[in-house]
Amino acid sequence: MVLFGILGCTDSKNTMGIVPNLKFQQTTVIPSGLGYDSLVWLDVQFEDGDGDIGLGLSDTLGDFAYGKYDFHNLKVYYLYLENGRWVYPLNPLTSADTITFHERLPVLTPTGKSKAISSDLRLKIPVKPYGFSGDSIKYRLRISDRLKHRSQWVESPLLVVKPQ
């Protein structure tokens, strides 16, 4: 499970494009206080010139239906380093799916004349998801809007963590 929070939004004059832009701000590893790490905070910033970020409760049909690629508008992949290669690990609880932290961001479109949006987002992800314990990890993210414009993929830096 991943927790996320919008740290702040600004509706600025529309000087950005209609394709969302995503960039990493920082990553923070949070120690448990018991000799191992418990959480990773991923701080990212996104912007969208027409402000159509987020999905509403009624966005559940067609391409936004459960099981479809666009059901989640924030893709978050977990990778770990194995023998010098980045690997998408299988979820140890199912052994069928890779470990992901995809989310459905709610509608964030500003009210008023300018629809451009820029915001900071913090994702809080467990260091040992579903019991998997990689020690050299990174995350790969992409955000999309309601017109299915997709940002570029961004990757966190390598994080060396101490799982329990």
Please describe what this structure looks like:
Helices cover 0% and strands 40% of the residues. The radius of gyration is 17 Å and the shape is globular. The mean pLDDT is 90. A hairpin with a 2-residue loop joins strand 4 (74-82) and strand 5 (85-87). The two termini are 17 Å apart. The protein has 164 residues and is mainly beta. It has strands at residues 3-10, 21-31, 37-48, 74-82, 85-87, 117-126, 136-143, 154-155, 159-160. The strands form two sheets. Strands 4, 5, 7, 8 and 9 form a five-stranded antiparallel sheet that branches.
Task: Present the secondary structure layout.
Blueprint lengths: L2 E8 L10 E11 L5 E12 L25 E9 L2 E3 L29 E10 L9 E8 L10 E2 L3 E2 L4
Antiparallel strand pairs: 1-6, 2-3, 3-6, 4-5, 4-7, 7-8, 7-9
Report the biggest beta sheet as strand number plus sense, adding barrel if it closes.
5 strands, antiparallel
Portion of residues within helices = under 10%
Chain-averaged pLDDT: 90
Contiguous low-pLDDT stretches (5 residues minimum) are none
Q: Give the helix/strand class.
A: mainly beta
Based on DSSP secondary structure assignment, what is the total number of beta strands? 9
User: What is the radius of gyration?
Assistant: 17 Å
Shape: globular
In angstroms, what separates the terminal alpha carbons? 17 Å
Strand content: 35-45%
- The total of helices stands at 0
What is the H/E order? EEEEEEEEE
